[in-house]
Every structure is written in C-alpha cells, then in structure tokens.
Structure to design on (109 residues):
C-alpha cells in the first residue's frame, strides 16, 4: 500500500510528537519476541495473512497511542490494531522524520 507524501509527513510528525508507537521503539534484540505481544494482530494472524504481509514488503509497523489497549506488557503498550509501511514508503517517512526531528532539535536549543 503506497501512501501519499502528506500521509507520510503526518506519520513522521506524529512519531516525533510521541503520538505514534513503532516497532523501532522496541529494542532490536527483543523485537522477535515483543512484536506479537505489542501488536496483537501479528500474534493472531493466520499463515495466509503472514504470507500476504511478507509479500507486501513491510518495513515499519506502527499504531497511534490513542488506540492502545488499557494494559501494557513489560512496559510496552499493546494494540489490537496496527498499520504498516512498505519499504518504499518507510524510507520516505523516516527521511521526513529525520527532517522534522532536526528542525525541532534546532528550535529546542
């Protein structure tokens, strides 16, 4: 699924503003174990869905904090829903993220 540049810019802004939790918030060495706990649809996905997700070349999984379930596990939020970006969209979005973060860091100096 390709998103518009405006959508990708908004996601980047929302990550910088701490409105979005991404798979990158999970320590790299724990992602394999924590991803299906944080993003419950991964734990509940059937084999067909997993294969479809792999075919879509998913790079970044995320969700807005306001959609988190009322409990956390190991200090991490849990979500009953999730969104994702393919590699192409993720590359653009993380570029926007770096730009937004750089501007914000300059303003906060």
């Amino acid at each position: 699924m390709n998103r518009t540049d405006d959508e990708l810019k908004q996601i980047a802004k929302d990550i910088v503003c701490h409105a979005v939790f991404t798979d990158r918030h999970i320590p790299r060495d724990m992602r394999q174990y924590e991803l299906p706990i944080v993003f419950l649809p991964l734990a509940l996905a059937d084999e067909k869905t997993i294969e479809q997700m792999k075919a879509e070349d998913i790079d970044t999984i995320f969700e807005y904090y306001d959609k988190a379930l009322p409990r956390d596990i190991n200090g991490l939020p849990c979500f009953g829903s999730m969104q994702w970006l393919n590699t192409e969209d993720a590359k653009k979005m993380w570029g926007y993220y770096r730009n937004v973060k750089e501007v914000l860091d300059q303003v906060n100096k």
The longest strand covers residues 58-64. Helices lie at 5-16, 31-38, 40-44, 47-55, 87-107. The two ends are 37 Å apart (CA to CA). The beta strands are 20-22, 58-64, 68-73, 76-79, 83-86.
